[in-house]
Every structure is written in structure tokens, then in C-alpha cells.
Design a protein that fits this description.
alpha/beta; Alpha/beta knot; Trp Operon Repressor, Chain A; Aminopeptidase; 3 domains; 7-stranded mixed beta sheet; 13 helices; about 25% strand; binds 5-bromanyl-1,3-benzothiazol-2-amine
Length: about 425
């Protein structure tokens, strides 16, 4: 039995777009049978009345249950028995549950099994509440009141178009390329999409990111995942609740991702007035791929990575051993000691829990190494970082000055016992 959708509205012409594009083609190809009905066909008075004033008072009009009952009995044919699979009465309303890709998948499942969806498009202040109550009590009708977003439309018709398009494209045979269904935003991994680019390589002075033209499919996949996670963190941090940060030790093969991440995050900890040239010079000198390969081989260092949804979003590097700076050596109260030398998280993920997970793992690793305390240097003006370190048990020991490029900078030195 073909999938069947009935739409009931006082403005059936509003549903004309269902003849077009992908949904129109699916109908022509017999993949789905969609019928649009005029609610007024089920009125019985001279004026074809569908609404009346609300009991209890208030502005506007409410749609009459008797008219809707006639209409829905006719299109749903409950108990008619001809349709073996599920029936759904779908009511778009701002008071409904949020319509999601998951609901679209469930509705597509009902249709694919030969079921039926009847969409009731309300107008005015909505439909008399007894209508959903009545059909919800019907053994083989599932009532779903859904909202397509937190705003108010003039009626359910546009919301019905949204729901029908989201559902029909999931029906077997509708989309040519099945992979595009699972690869896109709100697919299985619950992340927003990475940015996409096509020809030309330079447009109005804007270049396609070099990595996408490199042909290195492993690095391209990593880059896309990082951009997807970053975008999700910025725009929809709520979606990241499903992807708690995890921490692991960095391995030999991580040198490249570490160098990229270090170059991207270094400027976050720099004073706001530091020049691009000074920052770039520091990155070229200290944060190269070769440097990280060396760091990863060094027995006195341990590097940890924070990952969110499979993307590396932060790292720490710690160094066990005597402080090189004699002033710091004199100030650190316990021996042996270690320096928390680098602690960086991508800016978009600063509030994601990745930093705390990294800190917890870094301190745990220091304890496993039998270290009684750990110190760090943080730029004196980096109040956000200092607050974070204080929250994680660090306290100020003193200060130090050092050079980046042409500038003298001053750090706070902080310390905590383990
Ligand atoms: C409305 Br009236 C009416 C009916 C359905 C919907 S869905 C939405 N966002 N607004 C208004």
C-alpha cells in the first residue's frame, strides 16, 4: 500500500507547493499519495462556518470540533480497516512538541509501512481541544501536536509544508543519493554541518581553505569534523550535551593535529595588543610539526588531547623536572615538580567542559607520576585563564618577565599541590 498523506485546511491553495520539486516528483512517481482537502466541505450551514467565539472569553476565534470531527472521520476512516498500518493525526501548533529530524524519521517509518498521516491545519486561535483529545482516545490513531519553532504563524499550513517535506524526502526511493540523507546536519551524529565550498578557488578575494584542495582525505575529514564541532559549539551549544569531552594521551601520529591546534589557539593566550608578526614568529619557532614530534618523544613530557565528537579541541603539555628559571625554582615549595607548560582549548569550546576534563586528566597524570605539585605561567592580563586556574586549585606564587618577539611580557606564576 502506498504511503498516504491527507491535509485538511480552510486554504487548500496554500498547499500548492506540494506539486513542486522533490515532493511533487515523489507524488508523480507514486512514492507517496497526497490529498489536500477543504475543511469547509464538511460544514453544514449556509455560511460554511468553521469557527466560533471561545468559551471563557478572550480574543479571536476557535475552530469548531464538530466540523473537524466530520472532516477527520472522513479522511482517517477510523476503524475502516482498509489500512493495516499506523494512522497519525498530526496537528501543527506552537504549543506542540518541537518537530525534529527524529520525529520526521518516525513519521517516514509510519508511511513506509503503508500507514497514513492526516495533517490538521488550524487557523485563528487554534482548534477546539476536544478534537485531539477525542482522536487520542482512538485505539489506532496516534495524535502528534508539533511545533516547527518558537514563533507564531497565521495557521498550520506552512508548518504542514515543512513537516511533509522533511518526511517525504526520507521515504525509500525519493532521494537519489542515500548518503546525503545521513551526512547532513541533524543526522545521526547530532552536529551542525561543516562549511562547504566549490569553484572558483578564489571568489571576491576569498579563498577556499587550502586543506580542502590538498587531496589528503584523512586531514580533510579531521578538518571538517573540527569545523562542525566548532560551529555547533558556537551556534547550538545545547546539541553538544550529547557529546561530552573525552581526554586521551597524545600519540606519535598526533603531531600534525597538535601543531595545527597550537597554531590556531596560541593567540588566545596572548595580550590583546601583541602584533600579528610577533605571534606568527612565535608559532614558526616553537609550535612547528617538528617541535611537537620532539615533544612527543621526550620522556619528561606528557601531552593530553581533549576530543569532542571525535574532533581534537584542546591539549595540554606538561614537563616533569626542575624549573629552568632559578627564581621559579626557588619559589616552588615541593620537589620533584612539573610545569603545566601549555593548556589550550579552541575558543568556541571554552565553556564546553573540555577544559575542565583536560585539567582533571592532567592533574591525575601528574599524581600517577608521583609528582607532589605542579606550576604554570599565565599572562598577567589573562584574567579568564587565571580565574580558571584558581578554580582548579592553583594560587599565585609570584611573577616573571619574558620576551615574545620584540616585547617584554609579564606572567603570573601559579602553583598547586597534588
Ligand atoms: C501556528 Br493558528 C496556528 C496553527 C499552527 C501553527 S504552527 C506555528 N508556528 N504557528 C499557528
Amino acid at each position: 500500500m502506498t504511503a498516504r498523506i491527507d491535509v485538511v485546511s480552510i486554504f487548500p491553495d496554500y498547499l500548492a507547493p506540494l506539486d513542486l520539486s522533490l515532493v511533487g516528483k515523489a507524488r508523480q512517481r507514486g512514492l507517496v499519495d497526497i490529498a489536500v482537502h477543504d475543511l469547509r466541505a464538511w460544514t453544514s450551514d449556509r455560511h460554511r462556518t468553521v469557527d466560533d467565539t471561545p468559551f471563557g472569553g478572550g480574543a479571536g476565534m476557535v475552530m469548531r470540533p464538530d466540523v473537524w470531527g466530520q472532516a477527520l472521520d472522513a479522511v482517517l476512516d477510523p476503524g475502516g480497516g482498509a489500512r493495516p498500518s499506523g494512522r497519525v493525526l498530526l496537528v501543527p501548533t506552537p504549543a506542540g512538541e518541537p518537530f525534529t529530524q527524529r520525529i520526521a524519521e518516525e513519521l517516514a517509518g509510519v508511511l513506509a509501512d503503508g500507514g497514513q498521516i492526516a495533517v490538521a491545519c488550524g487557523r485563528y486561535e487554534g482548534i477546539d481541544s476536544r478534537v485531539t483529545e477525542h482522536y487520542a482516545a482512538h485505539q489506532d490513531v496516534q495524535v502528534r501536536e508539533v511545533s516547527i519553532g518558537d514563533y507564531v504563524l497565521n495557521g498550520g499550513e506552512v508548518a504542514a509544508l515543512v513537516v511533509i517535506e522533511a518526511v517525504v524526502r526520507l521515504l525509500p526511493g525519493v532521494l537519489g543519493n542515500a548518503a546525503s540523507v545521513v551526512e547532513e546536519s541533524h543526522g545521526a551524529d547530532g552536529l551542525l554541518e561543516h562549511p562547504s565550498y566549490t569553484q572558483p578557488p578564489v571568489w571576491r578575494g576569498l579563498e577556499v581553505p587550502e586543506i580542502l584542495r590538498s587531496g589528503d582525505h584523512g586531514r580533510i575529514a579531521d578538518w571538517r569534523r573540527e569545523r562542525a564541532v566548532e560551529r555547533t559549539a558556537r551556534v547550538r551549544p545545547d546539541l553538544l550535551a550529547a557529546h561530552p569531552a573525552t581526554v586521551r594521551a597524545a600519540r606519535k601520529g598526533d603531531a600534525e593535529v597538535l601543531a595545527d591546534l597550537a597554531a590556531a589557539t596560541f593567540r588566545l593566550a596572548c595580550p590583546p595588543d601583541m602584533s600579528e608578526e610577533d605571534m606568527a614568529a612565535y608559532v614558526r619557532e616553537h609550535l612547528t610539526l617538528e617541535r611537537f614530534r620532539g615533544y612527543l618523544r621526550d620522556k619528561h613530557r606528557w601531552l593530553l588531547l581533549a576530543e569532542v565528537a571525535g574532533a581534537v579541541v584542546g591539549y595540554t603539555m606538561s614537563i616533569a623536572g626542575e624549573p629552568v628559571d632559578p627564581e621559579i625554582a626557588a619559589a616552588v615549595p615541593t620537589r620533584p615538580t612539573a610545569e603545566l607548560s601549555k593548556f589550550y582549548v579552541r575558543a568556541a569550546l571554552h565553556r564546553s567542559g573540555a577544559a575542565s576534563a583536560l585539567m582533571d586528566a592532567t592533574l591525575a597524570t601528574a599524581r600517577e607520576r608521583g609528582l607532589p605539585g605542579i606550576w604554570l605561567g599565565v599572562h598577567g592580563q589573562n584574567e579568564r585563564a587565571k580565574r580558571f586556574y584558581r578554580k582548579h586549585g592553583f594560587a599565585r606564587l609570584g611573577g616573571r618577565t619574558f620576551t615574545v618577539g620584540s616585547r617584554r611580557e609579564s606572567d603570573d606564576v601559579m602553583y598547586r599541590t597534588l
